[in-house]
Design goal:
Blueprint lengths: L1 H8 L2 H11 L1 H9 L9 H18 L1 H18 L17 H7 L8 E5 L4 E7 L8 E6 L10 E7 L4 E6 L2 E4 L2 E4 L10 E6 L9 H18 L7 E6 L5 E6 L15 E5 L4 H13 L16
Antiparallel strand pairs: 1-2, 1-11, 2-4, 3-8, 4-5, 5-8, 6-7, 7-9, 9-10
Length: about 300
């Protein structure tokens, strides 16, 4: 599931579409947020945000559907295999749950961080209960599972102040992780949170437009579906960990992987610092690429 959000978020066409769509907010903001909600205080700010998340997709339904068709074509092109079946492909990588379980604190106190254009944090065990203390719940899909109820899952940055959570719904084949079933609509499985430390002003065009950018992106990407595919984490000859995607029968999907991503095993979690701050830096290429932190390969 994370691949649907991660890959399409990195497609340049999505970023190019957002300013044109978001600009509509300036002229229609009075219709998007009820006057009774424009009050001071965190509670009214949150109400205004949730109202915007409900209203803007309906206001832009036709435009979103038009652009989503183009994105779907890009995504389907990325799912075309880039090679023949690789023998023993599913045993080349690391058994991630086993490896994380061998670290101090075990599988519940360690996670896999992907630093790149779309920062992601993946858990394979119980997710810390206090991980969302600084976050406000915004929206959940009809099939979404809350982090407190999930046994593993992914947090992804989808903007400077927003993250998406998708519960783990995979099976392990050898050392590979594969989706259990195809996905009809990605947003149905996702929960959106907003960082409470950044205030929202419904009277401010920049604040409205920033929120609208994320809403547009989430709705464009969330409308996409995906067939089943698999992934492994493998250590290359330079000692860096890489994420590699495959079809269930072992054909590589190189277009699904970003060679610039670096993977790190971490035990201390701060979602905003690890995901959103890096999202901003990576998206404008302020942050150079460094080798992944050294970790012992259990294989």
């Amino acid at each position: 599931m994370r691949k649907i959000f991660a890959l399409v978020l990195s497609v340049a066409t999505v970023l190019a579409l957002i300013p044109a769509n978001a600009s509509r907010v300036s002229g229609t903001s009075g219709n998007l947020v009820d006057d009774e909600m424009v009050e001071e205080g965190p509670a009214s700010q949150l109400s205004s945000i949730k109202q915007l998340w409900q209203t803007l997709p309906m206001e832009m339904a036709d435009e979103l559907e038009e652009y989503r068709t183009s994105l779907d074509l890009e995504f389907r092109a990325a799912l075309v295999p880039t090679g023949e079946v690789e023998p023993d492909w599913d045993t080349k990588g690391i058994d991630l749950p086993k490896y994380l379980g061998s670290l101090p604190g075990g599988i519940d106190d360690n996670a896999l961080l992907t630093v790149g254009e779309v920062p992601m944090l993946r858990f394979f065990g119980k997710i810390p209960a206090d991980i969302l203390d600084d976050w406000d719940f915004i929206h959940a899909g009809s099939k979404a599972v809350a982090p407190t109820e999930a046994q593993g899952g992914d947090f992804l940055a989808i903007g400077p102040n927003h993250i998406v959570f998708v519960a783990d719904d995979e099976i392990q084949t050898g050392n590979a992780r594969c989706m259990k079933t195809a996905v009809g609509r990605a947003a149905d499985h996702a929960t959106v949170y907003r960082y409470a430390g950044v205030p929202f002003d419904p009277d401010s065009d920049p604040s409205l437009e920033a929120e609208a950018e994320v809403i547009v992106m989430h709705n464009l990407i969330g409308g996409l579906g995906s067939p089943v595919f698999c992934w492994i984490v493998q250590r290359d000859q330079e000692g860096r960990y890489r994420n590699l995607s495959y079809t269930p029968d072992g054909r590589p999907l190189a277009h699904m992987d970003d060679p610039m991503d670096r993977l790190e095993f971490i035990s201390s979690v701060d979602l905003y610092q690890q995901l959103n701050v890096r999202y901003t830096a990576e998206s404008v290429r302020d942050e150079p690429s460094y080798p992944a932190e050294e970790a012992t390969d259990p294989s």
